[in-house]
Amino acid sequence: MTIPKKVRLVEVGPRDGLQNEKQPISVADKVRLVDDLTAAGLGYVEVGSFVSPKWVPQMAGSAEVFAQIQRKAGVTYAGLAPNLKGFEAAVEAGVKEVAVFAAASESFSQKNINCSIAESLERFVPVMEAAKAHGISVRGYVSCVLGCPYEGEVPAEQVASVAAELYAMGCYEVSLGDTIGTGTAGATRHLINVVGTRVPRDRLAGHFHDTYGQAVANVYASLLEGVAVFDSSVAGLGGCPYAKGATGNVATEDVLYLLNGLGIQTGIDIDQLAAAGQRICAVLGKENGSRVARAILASRG
Are 112 and 151 in contact (CB under 8 A)? Predict the structure, then answer.
């Protein structure tokens, strides 16, 4: 398998990165972050989530964020819409692409969304039908693909089964999420080989957490298997709620540095990206989680 010449990065910082923050974040700061990211050249940004603010307080105001961002031609501005009510709110906000999520682990599904994997997939049926009627694209997430906080190892065949269901349902792309960040390069390649028998590899994406410091290695392992889409979060925003003090999403800057070194095209300016991450970190009062961004910023004095 040859490494892809071009890679698409799905920036999840404004949604997955901010949703676990404890302090309130203003709509203006969220809008600035999205606009900074698209100015840096990112072509896909997950802007917010249409879920009850009771469960995810930081995602309150997602509709306002969508209303105020400076939309650029050719950029996808997506939102998470896990049920029909959320989907309808997304449509009202002018969203053209939504994401749904399921787990590869029964225990995680029950703990996270209070239903079985089968029940969660059934809930997506009306969302998929409504999306088709509105001409809206749907992207699917599968969590716990390389390990579960409750069950430990998750069989690759089980991941493949859930991913295949989402793909058959109408998700144009399925993102494989290493939610607790325990995956290694060998396990990642095995996973893609197994899932790739059920879902075409050009319809798969990688979503790696850096809890054990393996995320960039797992991105490279995925590239070797022909995967050309990766989710990442500017400045490494987003903690891992299942490993106290551990990092969450792989930093977009770190993935971009790897891709640049391999001569892979992304169209993203790494300096502008690092500046965008540093701005939101200043707002949050936290250290930048990207090693690459810290090195770039240090070299600039």
Answer: no
pLDDT of residue 244 exceeding 70: no
Concatenating the DSSP letter of every residue in the chain gives -PPPSB-EEEE-IIIIITTT-SS---HHHHHHHHHHHHHTT-SEEEEEE-S-TTT-GGGTTHHHHHHHS---TT-EEEEE--SHHHHHHHHHTT-SEEEEEEES-HHHHHHHHSS-HHHHHHHHHHHHHHHHHHT-EEEEEEE-TT-BTTTBS--HHHHHHHHHHHHHHT-SEEEEEETTS---HHHHHHHHHHHTTTS-GGGEEEEEB-TTS-HHHHHHHHHHTT--EEEEBGGG--B-TTSTT-B-BPBHHHHHHHHHHTT-B----HHHHHHHHHHHHHHHT-----HHHHHHHHHT-
Backbone Cα Rg of the chain: 18
Q: CB count, 10 Å around CB of 8? A: 17
Among the residue ranges 28-42, 170-184, 239-253, the one predicted with the least confidence is 239-253
Q: Which of 144, 148, 171, 240 is catalytic?
A: 240
Q: What percent of the chain has pLDDT over 90?
A: 86
Tokens 């802007």 -> residue: 47
Alpha-carbon distance of 21 to 59, in angstroms, equals: 10
Give the residue among 148, 140, 199, 208 at the shortest CA–CA distance from 175.
140
| Whether residue 51 has pLDDT greater than 90 | no
What φ, ψ does residue 112 adopt, rounded to 5°? -85, -45
Active site residue 148: no
Task: List, for residues 77-110, the tens digit of each pLDDT value.
Answer: 999 998 999 999 999 999 999 999 999 999 999 9
* 8-299: CATH topology: TIM Barrel (3.20.20)
pLDDT at 241 over 80: no
